[in-house]
Design the sequence.
């Protein structure tokens, strides 16, 4: 069966510090991968999605970036965090036309 | 115009009643439609998916799709307090490069 791992679960970072969130998928190959952010009380905002290694589509211009160094690994990064980067970050995977499965999420607080 | 629109609620229904949640989408090329439930502080979990026009039933849940009207809905029969959550509508286009877009969600409150 397929599983998705996302870590860490919670993170408190100072403004201006770097960020690296990692997501890995097991039990499937060539998944579509997504990073979403959810601000408190808000909906899911699509940040990045990837249909293959090295293929990244950015939905919202900001100080975040994403990379997909391996087929089942998706990384969200920032060189310098802003207060507005606080939120609940969710990684998800899907195959073409099928439902998306989410990781447990990372709650990021920038202080 | 937002790509996927939902009423944010809260939608309040008494226990045992039918809850009706609605969603409209803008991309006529959309192929797949999903309903997720999200409890506070948790990640979304899939409830239903529907690909074809008409109704699809699974237990107490029924998804309805009308592609001509670009409308998808979720009915919850015999609503329970445990159904109180935010319900997210998601839409995906066809093809390998299609993205999954979510609405902002409707908060459902089932009252005793």
Sequence:
């Amino acid at each position: 069966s397929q599983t998705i791992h996302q870590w860490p679960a919670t993170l408190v970072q100072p403004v201006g510090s770097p960020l690296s969130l990692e997501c890995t998928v097991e039990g499937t190959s060539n998944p579509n991968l997504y990073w979403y952010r959810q601000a408190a009380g808000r909906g899911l905002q699509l940040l990045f999605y990837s249909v293959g290694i090295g293929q990244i589509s950015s939905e919202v211009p900001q100080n975040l970036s994403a990379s997909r160094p391996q087929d089942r690994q998706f990384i969200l990064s920032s060189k310098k965090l802003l207060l507005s980067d606080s939120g609940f970050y969710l990684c998800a995977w899907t195959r073409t036309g099928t439902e998306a499965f989410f990781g447990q999420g990372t709650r990021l607080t920038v202080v | 115009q937002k790509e996927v629109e939902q009423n944010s609620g809260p939608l309040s229904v008494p226990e045992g009643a039918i809850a009706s949640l609605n969603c409209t989408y803008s991309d006529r090329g959309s192929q797949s439609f999903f309903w997720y439930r999200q409890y506070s502080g948790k990640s979304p979990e899939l409830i239903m998916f529907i690909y074809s026009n008409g109704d699809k039933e699974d237990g107490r849940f029924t998804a309805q799709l009308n592609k001509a009207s670009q409308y998808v809905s979720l009915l919850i029969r015999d609503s329970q307090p445990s159904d109180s959550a935010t319900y997210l509508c998601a839409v995906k286009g066809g093809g390998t490069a299609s993205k999954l877009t979510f609405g902002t969600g409707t908060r459902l409150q089932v009252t005793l």
